[in-house]
Specification:
- With 272 residues, the protein is mainly α.
- Helices cover 70% and strands 2% of the residues.
- The protein has a two-stranded antiparallel sheet with strand order 1-2.
Length: 272
Amino acid sequence: MRSPARWCLGLVAAAALALAAGSPIIAQGVLPQLGLTEAAARNFLFQELKAEPAAANRRGAIFVAGHRAFFKLPPAARGPAATALFAWAKAYVSSPAFKTAYAQYRKDAGPVPERPGPSAEAEAAELKNNQEMVRQIAEKLPPAEREKLLAQMKEQEAQVAEMRARTQKVVEAAEAERKAQDQARANEFEVRFPADPNRLVARRLRAFLDETADADFTARIIRLTDGSDGMEFIAPAHRAKPVTWQLSVLAGSEATKAARAAAEAWLKEVAP
């Protein structure tokens, strides 16, 4: 599952795009050195938080850009970069601006209940209207024809009543199923995007810590091209690892240790 932590690792790599060797990234401010505006960085993080779990192993544009630039970043600067990025992410997620945007997203993206089918009461009202129309027509007919029409109507009423009795349970079962499905969708959305965003952040931080707990920085990597885009893990088991694990290994031990320390500290603050 993608997470603020994974996003930060991608930006740690992207920091090399503008970071001069040995420059004090924390003191100077991390976002300008990434070539990012505050709005762009917020958008990247927000997109990560609301991403579908199925997209967890997709390397987004921010990770591709970061991967290309990462190896220009001095190893000594990687840990401070990770720490600075986590500090920025934490500040944004704690801000009124994020909370407002998150609440609006929940409002806009929440499931819409399905419209109920025709109710038994509506069908009964329609039948009553039809019967009244027939009676009005019958009043204008000669007596013999009127009696015949009213008799036919009475017979039809009995047939309809019998049919309604048979289908009433079916209608009730369909309505119960509709309500159950609406509730299931609402529950699923609430789990994915709880009203308290800290619950979502805590879940993503736990996922990051779980997926990077066994990061193997001795994993062998092959360069398929001259650039960093062509780097691939040699061992099939490593290629099958979550992308968060792979990014952590590529980022290196200093960045990953700093990221994990920041994630653990943040988790203590937001975990229930």
